[in-house]
Write a structure and sequence with these properties.
alpha+beta; 5-stranded mixed sheet; 31 strands; disordered N terminus
Length: 804
Amino acid sequence: SRSAKMAPSTPGGSGRGGGHAMQSVDPAGALDVVVGALANKWGIARDGREVASHMREGIRRRVRSLSRASPSRRRSDALQKPAFLGAFAELCSFLAGGRPGRGDPHAVRPVSLLASISSSVAGKKAHKDGGDGGDEANPAAGDQPSESPVDSSETSEDEVSAQDRAAGPGAASDPAGPVSTSASSLSSLGDGLGSSGAAPAPDAEKEAAQTQERILISEIEVKGASPELLQVATQSLVMKPNFAYTLKEVQEDVNRVFSTGYFSSCHPVAEDTRDGVRLMIEVKENPKLTGVVATGADMLPQSLIEDAFQDQYGKTLNFENFGRALGQLNKWYEDKGIFGQVTDADMKGNVAELRMKEARISRVSLKFLNPETGEQCIGKTNPEVIMKNITIKPGQVYNVRQAKSDIDVVHAMGLFDDVNIVPQPAEDSIQGSDQPKIVLTLNVVERKTGGFSAGGGISASQSSEGPVPGFVGSCAYSQKNLFGKNQKLTASIEIGQADSLFRINHSDPWVGGDKHRTGRNIYLQNMRTGGNAIHGKAVDEVNSPGVTELDALGAGNSGSRPGDQGGILIGRLVGGCEYSRPLSTSLSGTAGIQYQRTRVLGENGQPIVTDYYGNPIIFSHKDYDELLVGVLRSVYSGNKSQLVMSMEQAIPVKQDFLNFNRLRARAEKTIKAGFARLVVTTKGGMIVGDLPPYEAFSIGGTNSVRGYGEGAVGTGRYYVVGSGELHFPLFSPLEGVLFADYGSDIDSGPTVMGDPAGCRGKPGSGYGVGVGVRVESPVGPLRLEYAWNDNKQGRFHFGIGYGG
């Protein structure tokens, strides 16, 4: 037998491997070689004079273009730059129906391990997605042969029909597809597969000829593999000995061997035998992987790299497994939002060298945009106020998640209608650099931040005396971006005939840009709050011991006692300063000092010192109380949980100043329960020291124990309230809720000055159960609930925000 070495057969050859091999090309005689190749292909006289002149000129133009080709051009990202001789040899071999010779030193070679991985995985995916192409054309190429094998030693020209039958049902249906027993018929397979696995696509005529012609394969052998990998390669083959296959089916089986991922090259070699064609697939195993070295991975943890490749150390490199490990590294970049990826991989001996590229920030700039035109404009906000909220800095690797967090922080300032970050390549970024650079542009659209308002009306709570009874006038000014520094100023005043209220507040969310992001709030105001929850006569108290319904009704008309309608107001003049700062990502703290002067006012707006029952309301011997108090407060917000704790310590700077300590705590936890959720809330507090009754804890009502009126459970020095709510969806945006509340003053009611709960017959403890619906709104959930207390009395509750 003779080896064809993948060369095309001549028309006058024996058809059993008689032919010539095109292994190299002489540039000086390049045209003659091409003409000779065309003559061999089309059966034209060897002298080339019968080749049409326009074809000769076309070939000359192709040769000239190749000679002028720049050496820096790349056929593909996965291939090396071909030299002139290699490219020209490829042209000649392609025109002659073949591919570059295996021994040609100028043949196109792969340079990247990533190209090998891509080719192997793509080949395997093609077999899985599209099925085995050869199986459709020739079912005999499948696992089960369809016809009996053919012995080519007894084959003659008269037995072509038997050969057609041996090719299987797919071939028998095509009488134009003869069976060949010559190795030269496999010549157009060329040099097989290197690491790239790429091959020039044949023309339509060549493809048709290859589809029709079938080659009888007498033997199939894989050479160059260890016993373990030999079994892997053999199991990947679909072809069986003594069956006829098309050139396409042979090529697909070679691809299958390469697609196992264990071989860096795969070359088919065909030899003639008396029984047919002996097909040998020469493979070269990948090296054993002993280590991985990564360059350019400043953000990627080394431990992650080791974990990704740990199970591959000491084993023959497999392209698919290696590619899967690279995918884990790229997924880490994606999950973390980091602009980075593995860009190249190569083998140096038994060590894989990975090259990563992580985009670094060259510059961060700010741009104000006109809300109507979108063009750049001059902004009112100081750029430093905005940029100090940006945590991504030049020199850092760009992180999309970090950028989104910065956008949220800037938008939360309340000064802008739109905020976005646009990344662009930096001007000083070098193409192909291991550290590409980008420029970030922060675009903001400012909103209106200030305004003035005024109004007036009639208030029923004001005195009915004077020329304009009950008239109230008010005006307010607010500015959310004072001096362009994101400082907020609000001032309001309400003037009536009986009383006047005012409020001034100035806040700076980030004082001086300190590293702790400390905020400051300064306020001065006088305000009125209702005192009925403790000192009034609620409906629940009408039937209390010692107070008959007649007494209650008569008291409403006598006007002889202070607060006889239960309309007691607590008037406070408050001024103070607080500083707050984040202590961690989920914990914040506040510290401040506050001055407070408190009066209790009757329905006529005049100060009173005793309630309807004659019990003292003011702790000092004057008609008002004073105190200076220090405040500490911390808030923890975790995953579906919250904890708030505060302490107020009065500072008796003067003898008649109040002196007490008040502690309060509130905890909330949300638990998922299938389609519903369970919200458990508990809160409590205690006061030690001087305690005027208006400062005691009031228990009962919409935000305490539902089913009772406000303060109807009790008033105490200590208290505890627990609540459980089961939320379930009804239809968007409405949800239903079942709840149960319990509250107690822990028997501390009598310790409060005047025992306001005892003299009103409050139980001191109680519970309530009920149902309700909630609708989400911009100001919080709107709540409509109905509850029954432990006395079987029911009432509606309406509130805004979260209960409990």
